[in-house]
Amino acid sequence: MKGARSRLPGRGAPARRRIPCDAVRGLLVEYLGHELGGERAVMVREHLRGCPECAAEAARLERTLALLREAPAPSAPSALSPSSRRRLHRAVAHPLLDWVFVHHRIVAWTVALGALAAVLAVAWRCRLRPETVIYWLR
Are 28 and 61 in contact (CB under 8 A)? Predict the structure, then answer.
């Protein structure tokens, strides 16, 4: 037996190993959102065909996801200023970029120190004198 497949005696088609119900339930959201790829999606599909409890759970979850898709999108309170609305939208749409925007000084110092460290590493590697490196930086 190699991997998740084994050959059944007398048959040429490989048989897949049955995965436990708790593992399938952990993958249902990804499976129903078509985010599960290849072999794992096939294994979940086959498990759902043979397990009525997991199939019922998948149907309940699918109905819940459909209700969530139909629900109106939340909106910001009308009392928010336009700048606060933009900030909120940016924080929701791009959390990493929002963090960089809010902490721009930390990011700038980190980039500057990283660049200085790179220049000093090159200077050390090339065994340059400090006067030559300072001349290059001007």
Answer: yes
